[in-house]
Design a protein that fits this description.
By secondary structure, this protein is mainly alpha-helical. About 70% of the residues lie in helices and about 0% in strands. It contains 8 helices and no strands. Helix 2 runs parallel beside helix 4.
Length: about 140
């Protein structure tokens, strides 16, 4: 009788462990599927999400001080050392298109832009985007 109880206990324990294993395997497969979904989220889609988030904060800038511009009048902001293609897109999301707009920025504006575009706080000042923009504006427009 004792042996029969031991065998029965072993069988019940084994079946319970098997059910737990099947449940965990199902969770693993679901997690793998979620990971694959994340991986398939393309670089362009990720950029779009970032640009939309930045664009939604454009109204925080003082356009009375820095000026308004349109995409049609845009300068190539990538000419400024430290601004690459993606950062230019970020600035465009904020409706900053021209050297003149960056040249008109104060230190406060630069800090606010850095915060909004999720950039290192002192990098705009360290790389002197405002000074470079002033120089490029004068070179291009002679003003």
């Amino acid at each position: 009788m004792l042996i029969g109880s031991g065998i029965l206990g072993f069988i019940i324990g084994y079946m319970a462990r098997q059910a737990t294993i099947r449940q965990l395997e199902g969770q693993i497969e679901a997690t793998k599927s979620q990971v694959e979904d994340c991986r398939s989220f393309s670089q362009a889609q990720q950029e779009d999400v970032v640009l939309q988030r930045i664009s939604s904060r454009a109204n925080e800038l003082n356009f009375t001080r820095i000026g308004l511009a349109t995409r049609e009048k845009a300068d190539d902001l990538k000419e400024i050392n430290g601004i690459g293609p993606f950062f230019e897109k970020k600035l465009h999301s904020l409706r900053i298109y021209t050297f003149r707009q960056l040249a008109n920025c104060t230190t406060e504006d630069a800090e606010q832009i850095a915060n909004i575009i999720e950039f290192f706080p002192d990098r705009i000042e360290r790389e002197d985007w405002i000074g470079q923009a002033k120089k490029l504006y004068h070179q291009k427009y002679g003003v």
